[in-house]
Write a structure and sequence with these properties.
This protein has 53 residues and is of the alpha+beta class. Helices cover 15% and strands 38% of the residues. It has one helix and three strands, in the order βββα. A three-stranded antiparallel beta sheet has the order 1-2-3, with no helix packed on it.
């Protein structure tokens, strides 16, 4: 697992087409924005696991 530190407003890239941006931090919650092509599915883990069951 790669572990990174990012500040609000900073972005990380996954491949050439997916970007993840830290939008805000409040207490123990982090708001992130994800830009990905329409053919790349993006789900929260609990939704993904529910769909796989």
């Amino acid at each position: 697992m790669l572990i990174l530190t990012r500040r609000v407003g900073e972005t990380l890239m996954i491949g050439e087409s997916v970007s993840v941006t830290v939008l805000g931090v409040k207490g123990n919650q982090v708001r992130i924005g994800i830009n990905a092509p329409k053919d790349v599915a993006v789900h929260r883990e609990e939704i993904f696991q529910r769909a796989a069951a």
